[in-house]
């Protein structure tokens, strides 16, 4: 598929969607505490998103089927709520109650006036131990490093390379199977953004591109396992994982964060 470059007006509309994602995060931040369930957080997010005239884009989402993979049922939640060793796509549940010392990755996608907003943030639940804080700090900095590479004339491989180098240089690993992606009127568009790779490889970055960078950084091995629900992805060794994601637009001056 060809990459659809966005106009300045389209980027502004995407920024409005991204800002609503950010407002939803700021609301959830006040609610994350020991004892709350991930389903309660999901309801808070859905009510807020709909109250602002937007719709949750994950709810009922069915991904394009990958060759050799089983069909995936529609996603049942407004947010992805990924606790501790869940890397991504955690399904909100009344059975999952947050505990002191947990971490929870919350991924929010919505559509406002026909345009998508998408971002992820990993939150501590109360006080966390030093090793977990280091995981969060590393994952957040990996995102920042990737964003710094997102300038016209650079390549997508430059983004993945700096993320991989920093994560692995600090004793962590980067998930390979799940990637960043272009977006616009659709949640998933070209290009695909790998969070590993070689500098100078891949497509050239061009003004008008809009895509996410969303490295998933594991405390242990990079390998993953998919639960029987068809969505929940865990670390293969049971160690924790953290993810931070922004949507950005490429301008002549460099990256413009739409979800900051």
UniProtKB/TrEMBL annotation:
GO cellular component, as recorded: cytosol
Pfam family, one: Peptidase_M24
Cofactor note: Binds 2 divalent metal cations per subunit. Has a high-affinity and a low affinity metal-binding site. The true nature of the physiological cofactor is under debate. The enzyme is active with cobalt, zinc, manganese or divalent iron ions. Most likely, methionine aminopeptidases function as mononuclear Fe(2+)-metalloproteases under physiological conditions, and the catalytically relevant metal-binding site has been assigned to the histidine-containing high-affinity site.
Residues annotated as binding a divalent metal cation 2: 118, 181, 214, 245
Binding site for a divalent metal cation 1: 107, 118, 245
GO biological process: proteolysis
Transmembrane stretches, start-end: none
Binding-site residues for substrate, renumbered to this chain: 89, 188
Entry's EC annotation: 3.4.11.18
Keywords assigned: Aminopeptidase, Hydrolase, Metal-binding, Protease
UniProt-recorded Gene Ontology molecular function terms: initiator methionyl aminopeptidase activity; metal ion binding; metalloaminopeptidase activity
Protease recorded as keyword: yes
Substrates-to-products reaction catalysed: Release of N-terminal amino acids, preferentially methionine, from peptides and arylamides
InterPro entries: Creatinase/aminopeptidase-like, Pept_M24, Pept_M24_MAP, Pept_M24A_MAP1
Reported cofactor(s): Co(2+); Zn(2+); Mn(2+); Fe(2+)
Residue span(s) of domain Peptidase M24: 12-252
PANTHER family: METHIONINE AMINOPEPTIDASE
Known role: Removes the N-terminal methionine from nascent proteins. The N-terminal methionine is often cleaved when the second residue in the primary sequence is small and uncharged (Met-Ala-, Cys, Gly, Pro, Ser, Thr, or Val). Requires deformylation of the N(alpha)-formylated initiator methionine before it can be hydrolyzed.
Stated family: Belongs to the peptidase M24A family. Methionine aminopeptidase type 1 subfamily.
Assembly notes: Monomer.
Identification of the protein by name: Methionine aminopeptidase
Organism: Candidatus Chloroploca asiatica
Gene expressing this chain: map
């Amino acid at each position: 598929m060809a990459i659809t470059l966005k106009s300045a007006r389209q980027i502004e509309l995407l920024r409005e969607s991204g800002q609503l994602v950010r407002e939803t995060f700021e609301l959830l931040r006040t609610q994350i505490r020991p004892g709350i369930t991930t389903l309660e957080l999901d309801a808070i997010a859905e009510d807020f998103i709909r109250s602002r005239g937007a719709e949750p884009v994950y709810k009922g989402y069915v991904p394009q089927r990958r060759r050799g993979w089983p069909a995936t049922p529609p996603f049942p939640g407004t947010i992805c709520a990924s606790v501790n060793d869940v890397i991504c796509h955690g399904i909100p549940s009344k059975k999952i109650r947050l505990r002191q010392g947990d971490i929870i990755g919350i991924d929010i996608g919505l559509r406002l006036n026909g345009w998508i907003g998408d971002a992820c943030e990993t939150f501590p639940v109360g006080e966390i131990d030093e090793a977990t804080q280091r995981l969060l700090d590393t994952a957040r900095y990996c995102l920042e490093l990737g964003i710094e590479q997102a300038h016209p004339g650079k390549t997508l491989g430059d983004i993945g390379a700096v993320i991989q180098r920093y994560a692995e240089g600090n004793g962590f690993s980067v998930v390979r199977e799940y990637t960043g992606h272009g977006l616009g009127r659709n949640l998933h568009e070209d290009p695909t953004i790998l969070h590993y790779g070689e500098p100078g490889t891949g497509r050239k970055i061009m003004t008008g591109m809009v895509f996410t960078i969303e490295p998933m950084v594991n405390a242990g091995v990079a390998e993953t396992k998919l639960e029987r629900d068809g969505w929940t992805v865990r670390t293969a060794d049971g160690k924790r994982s953290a993810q931070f994601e922004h949507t950005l637009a490429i301008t002549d001056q460099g990256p413009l964060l739409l979800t900051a």
